Amino acid sequence: MFGKKRVAIVGAGLTLFRRNLKETGKELAYEASKMALDAAGMELSDIQSVVMGTAPDAFDGVHMKGEYLADGAGARNKPYVRVYVGGGTGVFTPLAGWWHVASGQFDTCLVVCEEKMSSCFPHPAYAFTTIFDNILARPLGTTLIWIFALEMHRYMHKHNIKKEQIARVAVKNKRNALDHPCAQLAANITVEDVLNSEIMCWPVQRLDISPTSDGAAALVLASEDVAKKVTDNPVWIDGVGWCIDSTIWTNRDLYYPDYVEYAARMAYKMAGIKNPPKEIDLAEPYDPFDYKELHHMEGLLLCRKGEAPKLTEEGVTARDGDLPICPSGGLLGVGNPIAAAGAMKVCEVFWQLRGEAGKRQVPGDPRTGVAQAWGDLMQYGSVIVLRR
Amino acid sequence: MSDVAIVGVGCVGFKSIMPELSYKELMFEAAVKAYEDAGGIDPRKDVDAFVTCAEDYWEGFSIFDEFVPDQLGAVLGHLFTVSGDGLLGLANAYMLIKTGHFDVVVVEAHSKASDILTFYDIVAFALDPIMVRPLGGNPYYIAGMEMHRYLAETGTTLEQCAEVVVKNKRNALANPYAAYGADITVDQVLDSETWFYPLKKLEVSPLSDGCIVMVLASERMAKKLTDKPVWVEGVGWATETPNLETRDWCRAIYTEIAADMAYKDAGITCPQREIDFVELSDLFAYKELQHLEALRLCRYGEAGMLLEDGVTTRDGDLPVNVSGGCLGMGYALEASGMQRLLEAVLQLRGEAEGRQIPDAEVGLAHTWRGIPTATGAVAVLSNIKE
Amino acid sequence: MSEKIKSYPGFRIKTADLREGKVPFEAWRPRVRYAWSAGIAMSRFLEELKNGRIIATYCNKCGRIMVPPRVFCEQCFKPVDGWKYVKDTGTINTYSVSFIAGDASRIKEPIIVAVIDIDGASPGMGILHKIGEINWKEVKFGMKVKAVWKPPEERVGSITDIKYFKPIREETL
Ligand SMILES: [Zn+2]
Fold this sequence. Notes:
The complex is a heterotrimer.
Chain A: E1 7-14, H1 25-40, E2 50-53, H2 57-60, H3 65-69, E3 80-84, H4 89-102, E4 108-116, H5 144-159, H6 163-176, H7 191-196, E5 199-202, E6 204-205, E7 214-223, H8 224-230, E8 235-244, H9 258-271, H10 276-279, E9 282-284, H11 290-299, H12 308-313, H13 330-334, H14 338-353, E10 368-375, E11 380-387
Parallel strand pairs in A: 2-3, 2-4, 9-10
Antiparallel strand pairs in A: 1-7, 1-8, 4-7, 5-6, 8-11, 10-11
Helix pairs in contact in A: 4-14, 6-11
Chain B: E1 4-15, H1 23-37, H2 43-46, E2 49-53, H3 56-59, H4 69-72, E3 79-82, H5 86-98, E4 104-112, H6 119-124, H7 141-154, H8 158-172, H9 186-191, E5 194-196, E6 199-200, E7 209-218, H10 219-225, E8 230-239, H11 253-266, H12 271-274, E9 277-279, H13 285-294, H14 303-308, H15 325-329, H16 336-349, E10 362-368, E11 375-382
Parallel strand pairs in B: 2-3, 2-4, 9-10
Antiparallel strand pairs in B: 1-7, 1-8, 4-7, 5-6, 8-11, 10-11
Chain C: H1 15-19, H2 39-50, E1 54-58, E2 65-66, E3 72-73, E4 78-79, E5 82-86, E6 89-100, E7 106-118, E8 126-131, E9 144-149, E10 162-167
Antiparallel strand pairs in C: 1-2, 1-5, 3-4, 6-7, 6-9, 7-8, 9-10
The complex binds zinc ion.
């Protein structure tokens, strides 16, 4: 890293995640930002730049949503930009914050992620009907769950994975979420509950899925000089990675997320990580569906292809296991306000590495954590490596 | 920290409508040109990151990011979307290279405005949903209100605004990339329909289709890829506020902040003296004058007089929008800033043919994101390296 | 600081209250309409669907025959080298069975959707479509299927000119 600037996270903020929140998107952005600034012991005037992350405009029902949210994110009269990579946005936005500071352009950057899915009436899922190719997919009435069910089924078929194995992820994450004060769908459920839940789009069942949510999350990023002044406890962004695969997903073998692997390799290379399962103490892979946690563990090179279900069965990925996965409760338990959900994962790794995660704290004094999000048409991976 | 250069440009368009190509094919053609121009780089191997600039509702897709990688050669590459103008994309590419981790970064922005059937309804969809949108009407009334206040406060005249249109459309006649070149008179502008008093029909930039791709490189790589690098000396960008209720209706605060940032970055202390030519957002005719002032290239309220004195014509002391601006090239949505940047690059390479400004060394490109935003960006470029 | 924070912001409202108008809100139905240029590759593809044929493009550099067709090869980043008809039969690469509509409400007849690798194109070149004339419990990975076309007079140049794909029964082989 010689000659290159190090960037730290010095504060994080998070709102409740709920199906409907009364706050507007701007108000949610404000609440999370204010909390992150307070946590960092900083004022808005200490912030030199702002990056916004938020997913489809169709949720909030405002064109140029980034512009609309600007004042909520404290961006008035500041350099401000919105980055957007579908579901990958929540982890990607801190990466954009990273280069604002790592470039030497700014000493501080406020990273804000917001989603108000409930504004999309009568159901947020309508916003997803326009994510598909206008010629090849929309005329068929394609829905989001269709395509994820196709991916899940292919993954199960390739490795001969049983639904029971996948359901364990939902059980684990919803249980982990019982300790998360912002959680929307924390619950003590069993594998049988998942298997008996409503079939939505085989093999996807009701309890395999995360909910739609409103919420926001924010992070304060600072250069090494500033970070050392404001905290004794900075968490460093040591690796950033992102990758996109081809638009034409029907030409790809969906059993494995190459795009996550490429993003992870980019981030690991920057962080000097050679043996991910050994060097990484905890991970927050993106889990909007239970199978995705497994899929992404494999893409993050935390285990071999097809091996993630076994690790889950053996309890390795439990909060007190050898490799805790989604100790926050993940999207399945805490909720899924798209961009805010990804950023929630980065907040979680930040709190875990600082030893501030309370009842959720993983044992063993973790030093290195990874958060990852997934987006677009089963196509995008964004990865961040944090170190204490 | 490495310096950053633009080493390749590719442009397709601009035309009022390009029905023959899909947006993917349009982007592919511009990308091929840009990679060829950048010493024939292979995007499958030689590019470290890609930035695409788009807004979902301009495209008619939620998550337009999905539909971009293939045509830029970015499959399994490191691509992302900036929901903003191409100049904001440039700013992010610039920062990526400055981190020292990236050597070659591609920026893309395009407009397929002709695919949009309900343009003003979509602009209206950007208004505040509680306070403003329910009032209805064509949202460009916001430009009318701003123009009115700007004229009242600065004493700028209707004739001066009309003169901007005459100048820029005439400039556009010499630009093969311009869609709306014309030889018209001030009277023709003033006699055109009043759309949003005092704003006239001919003072509103018409939409156009096209795509621009640029290749940026670190100093080390720039020298390998081209013998005509154009250096990005400074970038700045800022948002004032989305609130109509609390924004400055006279001054373009967002441009002032962005300009100050870019000048500081570029070490420019006296922009008026140090900048040879300017490409700025003239989405509405009065905006050229307002932005010229905000860029500190003349005193507040003086831009109209500068124009009258011929200072901003192609052969004046401070040529403004030699490309034809948005009025001449057409409003290309998020590619508007890239149009300005393209002209600056061509001028600084000495490749602007019939509209070449002699001895140009330092140029400025500026953009504004249009109604209803108060967001702008500035880049200062040079063909000599300090 | 997670443990130090005593309460997290956010005021929950119930969906029922929202629907019954107990909470103030502003409703808006945006008028957004588009007419996308289909472009060179998709225009030809759609015209051929109207003729009851599936057309691909091929790239001589990587040797792939590609469905859906494109004018540039995204792997080699060069223009493709030509057009080629492929069959209207294929193999099920993956499938799912949808019991709900776009708004998560239940639908009466489940829809079987699949990625179908098209015969005559390179391996793994699939398109998304529906499967018909079979009970969903009998669908298998690797099953051979064939397009069921709308009658010529009903075709309009759309992916829906193919009604669905049906299994190729042994007697038809
Ligand atoms: Zn090829």
